[in-house]
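Protocol step 4 of 6.
Sequence for serine-type D-Ala-D-Ala carboxypeptidase (Lysinibacillus capsici) entered exactly as in the expression construct, tag removed. Do not edit the line below.
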Amino acid sequence: MKKKRFRFQWGAFLLLIFYGGLFFLLFTRMVTLQATGEVEGQELAARAAAKYGKESVITANRGKIYDQNGQVIAEDTLSYRMIAIVSEKATTDPKNPRHVVDSEKTAKVLAKYIPAMKEKEDEIVKKLNNRYRSDGEPLYQVEFGSAGRGISHEVMSKIKEEKLPGILFVSDLKRYYPNGVFASHLIGYALKKDNEDGTVTTKGEMGLEYTYDKELTGVNGKVEYETDAFRYLLPNSEKMITPAKNGDDIYLTLDKTIQSFLEEAMTKVEQEYNPESMTAVVADPKTGKILAMSQRPTFNPETRESQNMKWLNEVIEETIEPGSTMKTFTLASAIDTGKWTPNDWFMSGSYTVFDRTIRDHNRYGWGPITYLEGFQRSANTGMAHLLTKIGDDVFIDYLDRFGFGHKTGIDLPNEAAGTILSKYPIQRVTTTYGQGSTVTPIQLIQAMTAIANDGKMMQPYVIDRIVDSSTGKIIQNHEPVEKGQPIKADTAKQVREILASTLTSKHGTAKDFILEDYEVAGKTGTAQIPKASGGYLSNQYLYSFLGLAPVDDPQLIVYVSVKKPKLNNELGSVPVSKVFNPVMLNSLKHLNINPDDVQHVNKVSIQDFTGQSAEAVEVELANDGLQPIVVGSGGKIIEQYPTNTQKLVKGSFVFLKTDGEVTLPDFTNWSLRNLLVFKSMTGLEMEIFGEGFVASQSVSAGTVITDSSPIVVKLKTPAESFVQDVEAASEGEVEEVEDE
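Step 5 output, structure tokens:
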């Protein structure tokens, strides 16, 4: 038998060495990984978590903005975010594609339903055709930025009906402003913003939304879980939930109803008179709370569309020359210093300071008139003469006390301070009637609170409280802040009485602002508009009114300005009154403020009695429940007050002027306004002291007045309100200064 010879197999040996080495390396690697848990310096657990661990965001709601009564002004609401799937891997059945297959058609349909995409159709096509990221990795889905967010349910449904492959919608939150145009420059707006990390956050862009963005913004929560390679949730995997923290809620001082009154009135005037701009504020003088604030032109925060609009809150951020509304505070300074002598005379028409001359609005004046009549006529020269009594330094000090030239400190950003010009004598003179120096509307409101609030000046504010939306706990609570007492209580009351006479006096410039049920006090303003290059525009004015009501116990202050309205042979006060009157009247009724007299429910119409017998008319009026006052010795009536076609409350006075000597009536319980009417009709020398109802008179009732001896009448504060007198519209006023 032949013995087999052993042959060494080099091929097998080499294969053994090769595979044995690989096995050894693999075994060594496995042992190393198990021992260290790291690869290339990174922990395997971390890499696995990164690959298979998933995280879902729980979106936090932005805090709501409410009015003082809890009515919603701004809130988050359900909307939809659009996503386009561009990866072909999403489609498993070619007959039922799950990704975008026709970019051009998809872009055209989306542009049809989403206005923001109409001008970006080419960009949409490019986005849908781009299937790779900048690093070369394939894209699974794309989004469309702000144009693809905030989509309503209606639009979402219409796009779904088109059955576009690859277009999906995800529920989202959108900032919603349910009232449309509503204090828009105050509230502002918030928009969705893309962050660098790919997340989306709602950010305040303007107004309170911007100022209080930190408080309103919540903190998103998250859900963490594990999936397999196919993105299916692994069985028994733990879910870790971090709940979202919603933003804080902000309650404003605004009253939604009053704000709506204001918006409606301003919109009507804007449509009728097409002014360049308008501003208006309603405030509570007792607390300083701003109950309403708006301006024109304005915008709807839902669309943010506007024309020729300034993106700033003009009530706070823009200064104006206030015109004759400033005379209110000149008057208050004179009364508070004891320099107000209403029955003293001055020469109206013009007043010269060195080489400069100021003139009254009618340029030639009214001859010698009393300071009281001068104020009622809004005579600039009266203020100039009054300044010599007050003293320049004292007057400027009072303006400082009223807060002019300083920020009010309202809880809003970018407040302007204005400038009180006082370096030169002519500047101090023009400042008395509101020219040259600048203020903000909110400063006028703050200063007027001192007049309305018996000398106590209140700081205006718009934030009532900030509340944790989850717990209801009050985080910030704003209380009324007294800014000092620039004038005495008696001064404030007297100023209100005189301001009321600008509506009821025969010479008053504010007759357009008379309300049917409430007594209003205030001052008109007709300010020239300065040019950027110096000087003033010709025949272009800022018309305004700063008023309060009711006079005896003011509950509201309203400021309205209308710049460069297109007037139809009307006074500039007319468009202003068309905002002021309905807002003041409706707001007082909304607040359940009782009218000046419960007898206002019983009203009597009167006619024009001129030329009729005073004796016969006297009987007729008395039978109607009115109080006729015959001025003169009787006979034919040559003038009456109030004028014809007026509706008066029963018990109201009706003055009938005739020829002949005047017999002094019994003034007991007469109001200041009735005294002023009697004085104006008779031309008698009367010195009036105090406010309210007449308490005494120096000349007995029934005396026939035959000489010019002054009659002293003293008033006392009334225990109950008096009946308002009513009068028709009057002339307006214009302030100007010129070089000599």
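Step 6, annotate. The chain has three domains: 55-252, 256-596, 599-716.
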